[in-house]
Write a structure and sequence with these properties.
This protein is an alpha/beta fold and 152 residues long. It has one domain (2-151): Restriction Endonuclease (3-Layer(aba) Sandwich). The chain has helices at 10-21, 26-52, 111-130, and strands at 2-4, 57-66, 69-79, 82-89, 95-98, 101-104, 137-143, 150-151. The strands form 2 sheets. Strands 1-2-3-4-7 form a 5-stranded mixed sheet, sandwiched between helices. Helix 1 packs across helix 2 (26-52). The relative contact order is 0.15.
Length: 152
């Protein structure tokens, strides 16, 4: 059962409206493109979850503040006494997973993704502890684009 549906990103909506009225920079257009790809990936994930999840609670697009630091969770599923956190990626390139890190195929680390894989579970654990919640959780980076591969 989906408890919290995914909502359209208001900042993206603002950028799209602005792009109709003004000439945006290359960086702004890249930001719009990246966010649209992200939303499409999240919708693909949502369709899979709706089709396959029989029992459990689903919460999408969560944003938390812990120790003066914000962090975001794309999808959180609670079932069987556990919490499953999904960071959804709709990458348009092949990537490599080695030594618990993601890399582009040319060997360059995907820094933002690797940092997020450490930061989010750490802050989520603090959030659970602060709220006296003693449930195990698992964190998954989920690649949804079927046209690209993760090697490892």
């Amino acid at each position: 059962m989906i408890i919290k549906e995914r909502k359209f990103d208001m900042e993206l909506s603002y950028l799209l409206q602005l792009s109709i009225r003004a000439q945006l920079s290359y960086e702004d257009n890249e930001e719009i493109d990246t966010r649209i790809k992200g939303i499409n990936g999240e919708r693909s994930f949502d369709a899979i979850v709706k089709q396959n999840l029989k029992y459990g609670l689903v919460l999408n697009n969560l944003r938390f503040l812990v120790n003066k630091q914000y962090f975001q969770i794309d999808a959180l599923i609670i079932m069987n006494g556990q919490i499953f956190i999904f960071e959804i990626k709709n990458m348009y390139c092949d990537v490599c997973y080695k030594d618990n890190l993601f890399y582009f195929l040319n060997g360059t680390p995907i820094d933002k993704l690797n940092e997020q894989r450490i930061r989010t579970p750490k802050l989520f654990k603090i959030l659970l502890t602060q709220n006296h919640i003693d449930l195990p959780f698992n964190y998954y980076t989920t690649f949804v684009n079927p046209d690209y591969k993760v090697y490892g």
